[in-house]
């Protein structure tokens, strides 16, 4: 039994929904190998055409009703509502999945692209990240249209082609919507797939789901040291490896500011009535006023904990080194290293580049920001408007603490990873990264970008119910 099942409620909603059909359609989608290549030119785009053909065959009412546009290899669907005074809603997802790590193919219980469906699970790369949500959004839309629900609010669905690589598809669609002068009431994208024990925030014995309203920025900085190399018996002036190591050490020793940013204050304000563990309990007692007054102490407490440390500071992680010698008695020539930064809101990629350049001053090191994936931190979305309130209302129906019969807390939060949602923040001030397609923590840790990715049938159906209800509550 999956642990998340115990939090499910109202599983009898929409009882005419076909479990077998929905799971079979997801399994077929998971069998289509929409893997990004290392570059755009090495991606097999025919698999994306195959996926689109499957979507059209699976959801004929949706594709028949919607205005369908291609933006490069991304898909944009518009189902017009009857009331133009209502801002449209936007469901987004990405069609691409990450590859299976070479050499681990046989570690899978079922082939990663088999789309195997059994009595408990639907298996395959993308079952959690995030073909399930793409298919679930379409299942919900098709259900609504099959029941002749009249949409008062326009619904758009945008499916990006390369979230796992460059996000060019979502970036292009976001820019196009901005050029058209569109604004959206709310947006829903993927979240972290978890139901979390709020004990990590000082509220033990309770559970919640995170709604990520912003994301940290991203920067890869490459360091390059050039050398003639030569015999290791005469390392006069040092080696390129020694210089590169010194540069990495200096950069890693920098202490970035620790700060309790606004989203963390909102999170603690949400949880404050249930926080009982010290020292946080004393620091948040009194709600937002106390949180603001004790912000520095709370930030230091977060920074001391592995689970919370990334959310109060910019992080620096050296991840790649290239060019080392293949023999112990040969000095390396040109060497490079890549350092990954995740930027707290308030820090920009320009700030990172400036800091790295300062840290290596005096060393013969070239510094380069790799721009392909660099992003400043996103804007922080609203948690006080219509979209967030409706998301809470619907989630409260389907995710309940079995010990108290109370809805799980929906916790405003920041995510360290990148999502396509940030590409739409210029057209929407309520970008919510939330997954109703949940799994146990060990399933998420192992399966997302790892081995034996899968989702339980019950979790998949519960996620579809969430989206059907969200359509019912906000579109009709």
Automatic annotation (TrEMBL):
<keyword id="KW-0378">Hydrolase</keyword>
<protein>
    <submittedName>
        <fullName>Carboxypeptidase PM20D1</fullName>
    </submittedName>
</protein>
<dbReference type="InterPro" id="IPR047177">
    <property type="entry name" value="Pept_M20A"/>
</dbReference>
<comment type="similarity">
    <text>Belongs to the peptidase M20A family.</text>
</comment>
<dbReference type="Pfam" id="PF07687">
    <property type="entry name" value="M20_dimer"/>
</dbReference>
<dbReference type="InterPro" id="IPR011650">
    <property type="entry name" value="Peptidase_M20_dimer"/>
</dbReference>
<keyword id="KW-0121">Carboxypeptidase</keyword>
<dbReference type="Pfam" id="PF01546">
    <property type="entry name" value="Peptidase_M20"/>
</dbReference>
<feature type="domain" description="Peptidase M20 dimerisation">
    <location>
        <begin position="215"/>
        <end position="360"/>
    </location>
</feature>
<keyword id="KW-0862">Zinc</keyword>
<dbReference type="GO" id="GO:0004180">
    <property type="term" value="F:carboxypeptidase activity"/>
</dbReference>
<keyword id="KW-0645">Protease</keyword>
<dbReference type="InterPro" id="IPR036264">
    <property type="entry name" value="Bact_exopeptidase_dim_dom"/>
</dbReference>
<dbReference type="InterPro" id="IPR002933">
    <property type="entry name" value="Peptidase_M20"/>
</dbReference>
<keyword id="KW-0479">Metal-binding</keyword>
């Amino acid at each position: 039994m999956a642990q998340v099942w115990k939090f499910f409620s109202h599983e009898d909603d929409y009882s005419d929904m076909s479990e077998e059909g929905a799971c079979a359609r997801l399994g077929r989608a998971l069998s289509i190998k929409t893997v990004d290549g290392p570059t755009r030119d090495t991606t097999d785009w025919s698999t994306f055409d195959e996926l689109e053909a499957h979507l059209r065959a699976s959801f004929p009412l949706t594709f028949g009703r919607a205005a369908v546009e291609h933006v490069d290899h991304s898909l944009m669907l518009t189902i017009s509502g009857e009331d133009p005074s209502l801002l449209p809603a936007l469901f987004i997802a990405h069609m691409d999945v990450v590859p299976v790590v070479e050499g681990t193919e046989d570690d899978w219980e079922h082939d990663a692209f088999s789309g195997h469906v059994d009595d408990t699970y639907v298996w395959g790369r993308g079952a959690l990240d995030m073909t399930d949500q793409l298919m679930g959004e379409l299942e919900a839309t098709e259900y609504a249209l099959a029941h002749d629900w009249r949409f008062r609010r326009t619904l758009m669905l945008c499916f990006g082609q390369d979230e796992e690589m460059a996000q060019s598809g979502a970036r292009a669609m976001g820019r196009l919507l901005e050029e058209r002068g569109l604004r959206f009431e709310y947006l829903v994208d993927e979240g972290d797939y978890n139901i979390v024990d709020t004990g990590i925030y000082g509220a033990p014995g309770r559970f919640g789901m995170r709604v990520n309203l912003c994301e940290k920025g991203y920067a890869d900085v490459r360091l390059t040291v050039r050398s003639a190399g030569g015999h290791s018996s005469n390392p006069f002036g040092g080696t390129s490896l020694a210089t590169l190591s010194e540069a990495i050490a200096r950069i890693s020793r920098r202490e970035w500011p620790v700060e309790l940013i606004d989203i963390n204050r909102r999170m603690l304000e949400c949880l404050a009535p249930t926080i009982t563990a010290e020292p946080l309990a004393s620091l948040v007692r009194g709600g937002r006023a106390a949180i603001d007054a004790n912000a520095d102490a709370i930030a230091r407490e977060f920074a001391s904990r592995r689970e919370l440390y990334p959310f109060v500071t910019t992080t620096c992680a050296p991840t790649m080194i290239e060019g080392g010698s293949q023999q112990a008695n040969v000095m390396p020539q040109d060497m490079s290293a890549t350092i990954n930064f995740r930027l707290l809101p308030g820090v920009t990629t320009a700030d990172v580049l400036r800091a790295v350049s300062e840290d290596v001053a005096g060393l013969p090191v070239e510094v380069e920001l790799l721009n392909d994936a660099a992003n400043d931190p996103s804007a922080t979305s609203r948690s006080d408007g219509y979209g967030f309130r409706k998301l809470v209302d619907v989630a409260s129906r389907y995710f309940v603490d079995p010990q108290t019969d109370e809805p799980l807390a929906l916790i405003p939060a920041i995510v360290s990873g990148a999502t396509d949602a940030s590409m739409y923040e210029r057209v929407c001030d309520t970008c919510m990264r939330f997954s109703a397609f949940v799994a146990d923590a060990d399933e998420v840790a192992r399966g997302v970008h790892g081995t034996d990715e899968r989702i339980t049938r019950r979790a998949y159906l519960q996620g579809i119910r969430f989206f059907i209800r969200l359509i019912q509550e906000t579109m009709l």
